[in-house]
Amino acid sequence: MTWLITGGAGYIGAHVALAMREAGEKVVVLDDVSSGVAERLPEEIPLVRGAVLDRELLDRTLAEHDVTGVVHLAAKKQVGQSVEEPLLYYRQNLHGLTVLLEAVVEAGVQRFLFSSSAAVYGVPDLEMIPETAPCVPINPYGETKLAGEWLVRATGRAHGMSTACLRYFNVAGAARPELADTGVFNIIPMFFDRITRGEAPRIFGADYPTQDGTCVRDYIHVADLADAHLTVARRLADQDGAGDLTVNIGRGVGVSVRELSDLVAEITGYDEQPVIEPRRPGDAAKAVASVDLIAKELGWTASRGVREMVESAWDGWCLRHPGARLG
Question: Domain tally for the chain?
Answer without folding.
Answer: 2
